[in-house]
Amino acid sequence: MLCAQTLMIVLDQTIVNVALPSIQQDLGFSPSSLAWVINAYGIAFGGLLLLTGRLGDLIGRRRVFLLGMIVFTAASLLCGVAWNAEVLVVARFVQGIGGAASSAVALGMVVALFPEPGERAKAIGAFSFVQAAGGSIGTVVGGVLTQAVSWHWIFLINLPIGVAAVAVALRVLAADRGVGLAAGADVPGGVLITAGLMLLVYTIVEVDGHGWTSAHTLGFGALAIILVVAFLVRQARAEHPLLPLRIFRSRTLSGANLVLMLLIAAMFAFQYHIVLYLRQVLGLSAQGTGLAMLPAAASIAVISLVASARVTARFGERPVLLGGLVLIAAGVALLAVIRADGSYVADVLPALLALGIGFGFAMPALMTLGMRDARPEDTGLASGLFNTTQQVGGALGLSVLAVLAATRTDGLAASGVPRAVALTAGYRLNFGVALGLVAVAGVLAAVTFATRRGAETEA
């Protein structure tokens, strides 16, 4: 049930991309305002993950999960019947609120429900599969629904899934009371961190339209940083902090979040630009592009669901994480040499398989390491932090690398280079930078988790 909910949330972040042209035509979005169909969701989702994760610890994770699912499902209905652009943007923002509430506590619930290491490894493997492969599945489903029926159904499909998930959750999830609001009811802190994260995500997603050195980006970025710093200062002094800073004393939790941010920054940029390469350079249709991404999802599924838990039990999380990062680096390196006259089978498919296998091994190991030292009363917070790291890392990686790729492409196009060649050069630069991010993540993982295996053996 938790995996079904997570898949629905992840699908919703990518399923919309393929349908954007149809949405623009039907509801009259301008080219500049169309991005808010994506941004409204991302700002609410990324801004509320930390707060809702902590609320799960305070008032009960089951309660927050159910409330989030109900809000998300109701907002999906409103998205599906939206009659103008304004209604759709507002509904997407509300969707983000519901998605944040249910997603923030989901990983913490997995950890709490499966305390035995072997069972937990299997559960996290399944959970990480839907998180990692959901994006590829969303591209396929979005293309099929938009082409076969209409864009409305990319939202309406959430209704039966959401209703079923709520019904099952009421039956199979035991009620938990939480530690009580008095243990962390820091209202000013909640306002500061929510405003700071929302403003940070907004600043990042608007970089493409304003530029990194514009007054808009620098001004809002500085304000976002001030709000986050003010939140941290308050948490250090508050009697009942919303985010107890002791959580960062865990080397594994802090290190896992840093590694995750670098890895997700690279992977988000990869997913975005490989789709553009397939569409704009190789000339695949929207549906064909979705199908072309399936080998990555299938590889993640096989490794996460079948092999990951067994290999981790045999060798430990650190070696599995490092091996997965090596495979991811190999896949990105293959993409860094793609050609304008390349082919899917020779230039893209081997990279997708390496990336899928590597991610299938790396992500469950990283999740396990990241949640290992979280206290029972902090699992919702740790889960929300992990999800927040993914959102911020993905937004940063996509924004920075998209600007680099676009700058490279525009410069070559202005000098008379054919469009396909210029586009490919921009994508190659993107993948080269992504390779550097994965390499740094690997070094950081090797250093951060250097002593874990010995500790496991002694235990």
UniProtKB/TrEMBL annotation:
One of its GO terms (cellular component) is plasma membrane. The chain crosses the membrane at residues 34-52, 64-83, 89-114, 126-145, 151-173, 185-205, 211-233, 254-278, 290-308, 320-338, 350-371, 429-450. It comes from the Bacteria. The keyword Nucleus does not apply. SUPFAM superfamilies: MFS general substrate transporter (SSF103473). PROSITE patterns: MFS. Keywords: Cell membrane, Membrane, Transmembrane, Transmembrane helix, Transport. It is a multi-pass membrane protein. Residues 1-454 form the Major facilitator superfamily (MFS) profile domain. This is DHA2 family efflux MFS transporter permease subunit.
